[in-house]
Design a protein that fits this description.
Layout lengths: L1 E5 L5 H12 L3 E6 L9 E4 L18 H11 L3 E5 L3 H8 L5 E5 L2 H4 L1 H4 L1 H13 L2 E4 L2 H9 L7 E3 L21 E5 L9 H12 L5 E6 L5 H10 L6 E5 L3 H9 L3 E4 L8 H9 L2 E5 L2 H4 L9 E3 L4 H13 L1 H19 L2 H16 L3
Helix pairs in contact: 3-6, 8-13
Length: 358
């Protein structure tokens, strides 16, 4: 098949989709508003100025004619947009079929609630799609509430690569209690909440270390908060790093903590579970589908800093006992529901069905 993705080429998830289907022998193209190169993928850049993570990128919709012209040259068997708002709506304006949209989180969980116009445009985009995927059931349910026929959408968790994310060789430092966050520095991930909790927990646990893997617009604010809380000696910034480095860091971490306000599937949580870190996550649908409080991790209420501190201290005091139950459960959950290659088999099968190339 000749597959054309229309998506943010800088996204690690988009790159992963492109590389995977290219590795299966398909001819893969990527049209993006980001100028990138991906091995074995033919990339096509459309300049649209800066793209804000926070949204409001209306100008990209005006680029649909350029996208349409590229599609005439590429002649793909299928067009697949990732992120339902910017790329999904623009792709819908092109009138190409078969057309697939993958929603990633905020595009269906937050944006439609903030703007009636967004909601109307999303409904338009979904009406033009032949298939729509969501990363989790709560996202799929949100789309169905918007009027998408259930038969037109499926839940497809992205999952992890077990060759990279596993607990083989897991080794914890003897003198440090290590917490790792792999969430980017954007408002939705609520990183200041984590910093405030670590500052309070340090008063009880003097050997804490916080690893911060990621990047984003709030980094200066986060650095200032860390300095204000006297945590410079406890915090290590990694920036954006390759997946093997993330996996190695998680294997050397006692805890993984995610305090996001909203999420799609939370692949970061899946990665941490696979690497054997004990997980603490906010009590939101993206996390409750993976974590049962007190059984294979801890759940905390959004913005409950004191509650998070209690969970960190509890984890420290009862770590071996907690892990004795959590490790085998998490290993089974990942094997059953979150293996990337298995989940992508279903996608490839649907591609063939939609294009008549079964």
């Amino acid at each position: 098949m000749r597959i054309c993705y229309f998506a943010d080429g800088e996204s690690i998830h988009v790159q992963r989709w492109c590389r995977h289907f290219a590795s299966l022998g398909h001819e893969v193209h990527l049209i993006s508003f980001k100028n990138v190169e991906i091995e074995n993928v033919q990339t096509h850049f459309i300049s649209s100025g800066s793209i804000a993570v926070s949204g409001g990128n209306w100008k990209v919709l005006l680029k649909f004619r350029e996208v349409k012209a590229l599609l005439k040259k590429i002649k793909p068997d299928i067009l697949h947009a990732h992120y339902a708002t910017s790329y999904g709506i623009t792709g819908a304006l092109c009138g190409f079929h078969p057309y697939v949209i993958t929603a990633l989180g905020s595009d269906v969980l937050i944006s439609p609630q903030r703007s009636i116009l967004y909601r109307m445009l999303l409904k338009f985009a979904f009406s033009k799609a032949d298939w729509i995927t969501a990363m989790a059931d709560h996202m799929r349910n949100a789309m169905i509430r918007m009027g998408v026929p259930p038969s037109k959408t499926d839940t497809v968790p992205f999952g992890i690569d077990p060759e990279i994310f596993n607990d083989k060789g897991r080794s914890l430092p003897a003198v440090k209690f290590v917490i790792t966050s792999t969430r980017n520095f954007e408002p939705v991930y609520n990183i200041p909440h984590l910093i405030n909790a670590v500052a309070m927990a340090k008063e009880k646990l003097h050997n804490l270390q916080l690893n911060m893997i990621g990047a984003g617009s709030l980094k200066p604010e986060i650095e200032a908060l860390i300095a204000e809380k006297g945590l410079n000696a406890q915090v290590k910034f990694f920036g954006k790093v390759p997946q093997p480095v993330i996996a190695e860091t998680l294997r050397e971490s006692h805890l993984f903590i995610t305090v996001s306000l909203s999420d799609g599937n939370n692949i970061s949580l899946n990665e941490a579970m696979a690497c054997g870190a004990f997980c603490i996550a906010t009590d939101i649908p993206a996390n409750t589908q993976w974590i049962e409080d007190g059984k294979n991790g801890f759940l905390v209420q959004v913005n409950d800093v004191k509650g998070l501190v209690e969970k960190i201290v509890n984890s420290y005091q009862h770590y071996e006992e907690l892990q004795q139950r959590a490790l085998p459960l998490n290993k089974r959950i990942i094997a059953d529901r979150a293996i990337w290659s298995v989940n992508m088999l279903a996608v490839e099968k649907k591609y063939k069905s939609l294009t008549g190339k079964e």
